[in-house]
Amino acid sequence: MLAFPLLFLLAQAPAPPVATPEPTPRPTPNGPVVVLETSMGNVKIGLHQDKTPRTVKNFLNYVRMGHFDGTVFHRVIPGFMVQGGGFLPDMTERKETLMPPVVNEARLGASAGLRNSRGTVAMARTNDPNSAQSQFFVNVKDNHRLDFGIGGAGYAVFGEVLEGMDVVDRIVAVPTGTKGMHQNVPTKPVLINRARELPAPKPAAKP
């Protein structure tokens, strides 16, 4: 007879508080560092060479051959991203130094904790998941719908802005319009004057 009141009291007791899981630490870039010298200031990007190696190799090849020099940020959408790496100021595509597309490593990056969060750098592509070549974008907000598994094949994150996010925020705020077939084009070109890879840091001297 005493069992039923006991069960009733247990059912009415407040549930113990559920511990809030700790947020997953954001991966730190451990690869080469590239500086984009733009007409609005410098942007320093650290690369996730260990997490998306093919994508990083592809990006570095374009940097080293000078493909990005003289191109523009041709697509700028407030609250979303800034995109560049493929067009000249007159909105003609730079094709002479294009390489074959790189395989989409969005799944590989996602498994290592990479997400399309504010300040991350990812490859732009067409509807074909494996069509990315030289164009990239910088997320100006958390765009997790672009991650693998949420946005289908996803968009491969390969780097993160280490310095110069204030420059990116200024770029995304410039006036835009339509130029030919292209929308969201800055009315005054925002140039990538030069992209350069910084020298690798020297190993610490042994005591």
Keywords:
single chain, globular, eight-stranded antiparallel beta barrel, 18% helix, alpha+beta, Cyclophilin
Strand content: 25-35%
Total beta-strand segments = 10
The biggest beta sheet is recorded as: 8 strands, antiparallel, barrel
The overall average pLDDT, rounded, is 90
The residue fraction in helices comes out at 10-25%
Structural class: alpha+beta
Alpha-carbon Rg, integer: 22 Å
Describe this structure in words.
- There is one protein chain.
- The protein has about 210 residues and is α+β, with helices and mostly antiparallel strands.
- The chain has one domain (about 30-195): Cyclophilin-like (Cyclophilin, Beta Barrel), CATH 2.40.100.10.
- About 20% of the residues lie in helices and about 30% in strands.
- The protein has four helices and ten strands.
- It has helices at about 5-10, 55-65, 105-110, 165-170, and strands spanning about 35-40, 40-45, 70-75, 80-85, 120-125, 135-140, 155-165, 175-180, 180-185, 190-195.
- Strands 1-2-7-5-6-4-3-10 form an eight-stranded antiparallel beta barrel.
- A hairpin with a 3-residue loop joins strand 3 and strand 4 (about 80-85).
- The longest helix has 13 residues, at about 55-65.
- It is globular.
- It starts with a helix and ends in a 10-residue tail after the last strand.
- The model is unreliable at about 1-15 and about 20 (pLDDT under 50).
